[in-house]
Amino acid sequence: MKKLIIGGGLPLKGRIRISGSKNAALPILLASIMVENGVTLSNVPNLRDINTTIKLLSLLGCAVEQNQGEVKIKPQNLLPEAPYDLVRTMRASVLCLGPLLGILGQAKVALPGGCAIGARPVDLHLSALEQMGAEFDLESGYIIGRCQKLRGAHIHFDFPTVGGTENLLMAAALAEGETVLENAAREPEVVDLANFLNKCGAKISGQGTSIIRIQGVSSLSPCKYRIMPDRIEAGTYMIAAAITDGELFLEECPFNELDAVIYKLREMGVWIQEGKTGVLVRRQGTLTGVDVVTLPFPGFPTDMQAQIIALMCIAEGSSMIKETIFENRFMHVLELVRLGANIKLSGQTAMVRGVRELIGAPVMASDLRASACLVLAGLIAKGKTEVYRIYHLDRGYEKIEQKLVNVGARIARVNV
Ligand code: UD1
After folding, report:
1. Which of 230, 247, 279, 375 could be disulfide-bonded to 253 (CB atoms 3.0-4.6 Å)?
2. Of the listed 62, 115, 313, 373, which one is catalytic?
3. What is the average per-residue pLDDT within 132-146?
């Protein structure tokens, strides 16, 4: 078990290259099992969730070659089972349901359990796949899915679920006839998946809007595809620049995908300028409190909620943040309070009153974005902050200590 030790108070200055997007790479890796002659993906980040997905691809019967950020995947003798051991460590494994049903007509995928940020059911995935002709049973904790050939359907999601939209995009790509997804998720990672599938010969239009049309094709052909940069990693480093009163140039930062975050950071007093090869970020004067509500894209992302709370902690005046996507996503708040933050929770809303300084202490990470929030707080907390359970961080932030050390942070990973 490792922990991070952070010496706070140093302004970060320099350049950070933004890695490929975890949440775009995961469904694209899994969609690759539908491409008979294989695909080559580049800009794949080196993360724990990616390694878990690659393990799953091997178990499903794919040959996988990984070299730096390049991953080659070729399906061989496909098997329909995603075991609980993998699904419990990464619930995104459920994204193999759509591709397996699409290509094999059967799937056995462990039902993901609860996770630290809430119940996260997959009912919307299943009912949409049922409308395409799949049938499901639950046996010993596994979702057993079967179908003849999936057929196109007109599907209306009750909620614009990201994973549900992705599962359906993959299932519909090889289905018979046209599928229309209404109230589909508009997240950039959904668009990246649709663009990848189209590059393989799928016929998808409307991605990035709430109505997506998929005309099923009989097969997909090999392609090379570069994964989009990670907007959540980029947003996290924007806050690192602002919170430490430093100046960071973020190379390959997906500026246009960060509108809602940039809007709020500018309102708080952060200067953000897009350049040809990246984005320059620095604080401009005193930070002031803001109100934020998390929403599906293009609203403020729930995956940036924890990080912006860290910034709110030291902004002048009051801030309010309401979480509307997940029901239990404020675990980091009590840890921030241990560092001296003034935050009151009331249901799904956090009220933050800015304090003059945070003071280092041992804190416990509860999930991926909560860990990022605690690292950000540690970067300005006076003295030493120790962040425990950093295995969460390794699920989603590539080389985070190296990236931070390179721009002047004092941060080290040590054995507990
Ligand atoms: C994805 C992202 C995650 C992000 C989230 C919201 C990946 C791997 N993960 O998660 O980082 O925080 O989008 O932007 O891309 N829901 C149901 N039934 C369903 C599906 C979802 O009730 O069948 C609920 C969930 O419990 C949650 C909400 O809908 O409260 C949003 O979930 P969803 O958009 O599906 O998120 P994920 O795809 O799990």
Report:
1. 279
2. 115
3. 93
